[in-house]
TrEMBL record:
<dbReference type="Pfam" id="PF01075">
    <property type="entry name" value="Glyco_transf_9"/>
</dbReference>
<dbReference type="InterPro" id="IPR051199">
    <property type="entry name" value="LPS_LOS_Heptosyltrfase"/>
</dbReference>
<keyword id="KW-0808">Transferase</keyword>
<dbReference type="GO" id="GO:0008713">
    <property type="term" value="F:ADP-heptose-lipopolysaccharide heptosyltransferase activity"/>
</dbReference>
<protein>
    <submittedName>
        <fullName>Glycosyltransferase family 9 protein</fullName>
    </submittedName>
</protein>
<dbReference type="GO" id="GO:0005829">
    <property type="term" value="C:cytosol"/>
</dbReference>
<dbReference type="InterPro" id="IPR002201">
    <property type="entry name" value="Glyco_trans_9"/>
</dbReference>
<dbReference type="GO" id="GO:0009244">
    <property type="term" value="P:lipopolysaccharide core region biosynthetic process"/>
</dbReference>
<keyword id="KW-0328">Glycosyltransferase</keyword>
């Protein structure tokens, strides 16, 4: 039996954009045993999608030992690598030392590929590129996250407890992994005030990074989804009509569960990092730069959100699937 190992680090969004790779490997090598070496809280999406057979924790497995000279892997880890017929490792750079050590233990093929794409190449296409000649059928580059059954039950209970209606709910996620990706609080406050004024049911999605911003944003009657396990959060987002977020892992997650997503982009290029879904709209004010989001007019966000809620928005898919609008920023 073939043994395939995929090594992938990064945050939530990094794992979601890797799902097409795992799906493509599963479809092309249905009889192979596929293992993923990645942080379990983020990598569980791959398990739920049934694209992998085994999830390996990098800390428990001792991945860092492959960067020492000489490598000091445990006997069990070394024995596992010796069974691999293909290793695909996405690394921050070419990592020549890692390549040499993996090839020392692995009798099969070792592919190291940069984790970050070049300009104007979408991340999903970039991650698929080293496998192009090895795949047996065309690949859908759009990530898909299935909903776990237990998480769906939990989401339904959350919905009922919060008194949310079956339709029309908007989830707002005002956070991101980098401060340069954040839209100013005044913009969020205006959009949320508009939603309250128009009696649009809403909820706030937050993690540790957003809790300082949360009290300034959420109306007292809105429920808060705080620090949820990712499968449960995915199930909640799947029940929403629209999710509004920054360039973040949550935006990628919302798009991957099939929910209409409005993503506010600033310094990063959505043609490279945009959530890949036909039901995603990216607002990317121009001119682009480190302070781009400071110039995004709240009126543009409100107008776009209203059209998405009313199903009057005119999607114009880009070459990376999502619709990308480039409104002029305010001075």
């Amino acid at each position: 039996m073939q043994q395939i190992l995929v090594i992938r680090g990064g945050a939530i969004g990094d794992m979601i954009v890797t799902l097409p790779v795992l799906r493509a490997l599963r479809h092309s090598f249905p009889e192979a045993s596929i293992a993923l070496l990645s942080a379990p809280p983020r990598a569980m999406f791959a398990q739920h999608a049934q694209t992998i057979d085994r999830l390996l924790d990098p800390d428990h497995w001792g991945l860092y030992r492959l960067f020492s000279q000489p490598p000091t892997l445990s006997e069990a880890s070394a024995a596992f690598l010796n069974t691999c017929t293909l290793i695909v490792a996405y690394t921050p750079d070419t990592a020549a030392l890692l390549q040499a050590h993996l090839q020392h233990y692995c009798p099969g093929e070792v592919l190291l590929w940069p984790a970050h794409p070049p300009a104007q190449i979408h991340i999903t296409e970039h991650l698929l590129e080293p496998l192009r000649g090895r795949l047996r059928q065309p690949v859908d580059p759009c990530p898909q996250v299935p909903i776990d059954a237990a998480a769906a039950v939990s989401a339904a209970q959350f919905w009922q407890t919060a008194g949310l209606p079956d339709q029309g709910v908007v989830a707002f996620h005002p956070g991101s992994g980098g401060t340069s990706k954040l839209w100013p609080m005044t913009g969020w406050q205006q959009v949320i005030a508009w939603a309250v004024q128009h009696q649009i049911p809403g909820m706030l999605v937050s993690g540790p990074a957003e809790q300082e911003r949360e009290p300034l944003l959420v109306p007292p009657t809105w429920p808060r989804a705080r620090n949820l396990p990712l499968p449960h959060l995915a199930a909640l987002l799947a029940r929403c009509q629209v999710v509004v977020s920054h360039d973040s892992g949550i935006a990628h997650l919302a798009a991957a569960v099939g929910t209409t997503t409005l993503a506010l982009f600033g310094p990063t290029n959505p043609y490279t990092w945009g959530p890949r879904s036909a039901r995603t709209c990216v607002l990317w004010p121009q001119p682009a730069g480190p302070l781009t989001l400071r110039s995004l007019p709240p009126a543009v966000v409100i107008r776009t959100l209203a059209a998405l809620l009313e199903n009057t928005f005119s999607y114009t898919p880009s070459r990376v699937t999502c619709t990308i609008l480039q409104p002029a920023g305010e001075a």
